[in-house]
Amino acid sequence: MHAVARPLSQPVLEEIRSLAAQYIEDDLSPGLILGIRCGTSYWIEAFGISDISTGEPLATSHQFLVGSIAKQFVASAVMRLAEDGRLDLDDPICEYVPHLTETWARITVRHCLNHTSGTFSFSGLPIDIGHGTLTSEAVIGFITSGRLFFKPGEDFLYSTVGYFLLGYIVEQVTGASVDIFIDREFLQPLGMKDTGFLALRRPTDLAGYHQHYWRGQAFFTDPPTTSRGLADGMYSTARDLFVWQAALASGQVVSASSYATMTDRTTTRDADGEETTHDYGFGLEVFANERDETTEVGHWGNGGGHIAFLWSYPPYDIAVVALQNSNGRLAPLLDEIESILLGVTCDE
């Protein structure tokens, strides 16, 4: 049995349009942008409205905060520095981050990239990380005073702190904040003119920001201000995300060998020597079949009042972008779209 991609035909598009229209009719989000690339064929379409206070229609040109999708940009920045010999993935972070305890000093750059450092996420911290009220050094001093959940390399735990540390390392190595480095080295050369960081420049056409959206009502609709340390506050469009995904996978951002490393699933070994493989590489979720062949690569991000998905299916040369201007649950819709795009046939 093998999977085959259905072509990006009008019947397929109409089926997906029907799902999107029903999603909006069910009031699960004010607006939604879907994009599909099948080989060299592209389709991007907007559904619903951008801002419930004005009724402005959503357009494919609208920009969205992409949340943790920024992690693959940070990981690519680190890989570029590794390619240039300016750091090594197995360098302990204490070579770049000052005043670490002995436990934290065992963390390597690689541990931060693949979420095996034992550090935690920012959720629930009693400090204002993302609103520019603290310097990177102050935040690092706070977070590195805490305990680790496990010894580095022994387990997997998704960690925004690890990526904050990576952003700081990029700054120490290059002398530029990680968002400036990403903008200079990646966004500008790729012509991603509608992508950027709130700390560097404001978006020109940001979609409405509907946090806590429910049955046509929304609260906390102002998008956040942001600091630079985490490369947070990143925004983009469906078109630019397609440009990025294609460039990253084809060796235009980092070398083919670096991308292979980024999409190699992480293996940890616990204190008893038992190994576990996790569906994550460097800044990317990575799924494989029973033959260990990569079948899906991507990430999603929660921008608070925006949600973004950027996903690819390498065996079929298909990529999917989904952007919505609320915090509603988008994954079930994407599962339905995936089932439409990836048909299954029997091959005796």
Defining traits:
disordered C terminus; 348 residues; 10 helices; alpha+beta; seven-stranded antiparallel beta sheet
Report a brief summary of the structure.
This protein is of the alpha+beta class. Helices cover 29% and strands 22% of the residues. The protein contains 10 helices and 16 strands.
Please tally the helical runs, counting DSSP H or I stretches of 4 or more residues. Answer: 10
CATH topology: Beta-lactamase
* Major sheet characteristics: 7 strands, antiparallel
Distance between the termini: 7 Å
Low-pLDDT residue spans? 344-348
Order of helices and strands: EHEEEEHHHHHHEEEEHHEEEEEEHE
Structural class: alpha+beta
Second CATH tier, the architecture: 3-Layer(aba) Sandwich
Q: In the CATH hierarchy, what is the class?
A: Alpha Beta
The helicity comes to 25-40%
Rg measurement, Å: 20 Å
- Please state roughly what percent of the residues sit in beta strands, choosing from under 5%, 5-15%, 15-25%, 25-35%, 35-45% or over 45%: 15-25%
Write the CATH homologous superfamily: DD-peptidase/beta-lactamase superfamily
Biggest sheet, spatial arrangement of strands: 4-3-2-15-14-13-12
- What is the tally of beta strands? 16
Oligomer: single chain
Number of domains: 1
**Coarse shape:** globular
Name the average pLDDT. Answer: 89
Task: Indicate the topology.
Blueprint: E1 2-5, H1 10-25, E2 31-38, E3 41-51, E4 56-57, E5 64-65, H2 70-83, H3 102-105, H4 109-113, H5 136-143, H6 160-174, H7 178-187, E6 196-197, E7 211-214, E8 217-219, E9 234-236, H8 238-249, H9 256-262, E10 266-269, E11 275-278, E12 285-288, E13 294-302, E14 307-313, E15 318-324, H10 331-341, E16 342-345
